[in-house]
Amino acid sequence: MSNKNYTYAEVLILGPCSCKCFYCLGKEMPKASKESQLYTDFKDWKNFDEFIIKARSLNIKKVYVSSVNSDPLLYKHIYDLIVYLKKFFEYVGIRCNAANLDPKTHIYRALDECTEEISISLNSCNEALSQKIAGEHAKTEFFLLQFYMEREQRINANLKEKYPERRFRVSIVVNRYNVPQIESMLDYLAHIPLVSYVQLRRVYKYADNDKEFLKDQQAFDMLKEYIETVYTKVDEYKGSPIYEYESSDFSDDEGLLKVRFSLWEDVFPEEEIRSFNYYTSGLISSNRLLVPGFEEQNTF
Ligand code: SF4
Known about the structure:
Elements: E1 8-12, H1 48-57, E2 62-66, H2 78-85, E3 91-97, H3 107-112, E4 118-121, H4 127-134, H5 141-155, H6 157-162, E5 168-173, H7 182-190, E6 197-201, H8 214-230, E7 235-237, E8 240-250, E9 256-264, E10 275-279, E11 284-285, H9 290-295
Parallel strand pairs: 1-2, 1-10, 2-3, 3-4, 4-5, 5-6, 6-9
Antiparallel strand pairs: 7-8, 8-9, 10-11
The chain binds iron/sulfur cluster.
Iron/sulfur cluster binds near residues 20, 24, 70 and 71.
């Protein structure tokens, strides 16, 4: 058994996604696209018990429910899964998409159970643009995010006290379409007090020769240059600078509305972050590169 110190474990849900983000990493995963456990009870997932036993023997305290080709909020038993994971891990978080924050279902209950970071990805604050980037299903994503955050603020303020590690990250993949809007998105997000920070991401591709996304990567690089010129670094996380966006609007009590943001352009080096991964097809892998980890079926 490897004796690496893992930063966290990750449960990667496999299945078709409701969105069609043009930059999706799932497109690089032909093997994964043949899998779907979206409707399977997690107690029937292959090797899931073994994953939990191994993660515990490695002394991993934190787990994220996530995906590389789908959205965990599409998993039928997401609420039960989060509750179950809390029996074995001190911190349970989720990485999901704003397009599936459906207020009518079990989804809010699942999110209420999270004790760690809730990361929500967002393509745009504009319906038409969201649709252009992520397909028809994504058009109301900002509306759903706002609705969820407002409800969270109203009903679940006490959860912050109960779970002090609970944070809300909004993750934005910068691309050729939304790059002119990034500062106005930061402004919107500064108005949502629950947003702890925003991560601006560069389109990441495992295939080196993939030229299709050059325009998007150049859009990020230009934005980065602009941010480094105009903003002052206020902090850093594992070597990545953190900045602060300041709105021209005031909050009721604490002065100008602000939100922190970081620029993410590459996978963190192994010395910084190591994840112990479980794919719902049954694969347990210690390859922190999630796409090759699955496609090459790298085991633990
Ligand atoms: S929401 Fe995530 S998994 Fe779904 S298409 Fe977009 S990037 Fe891919």
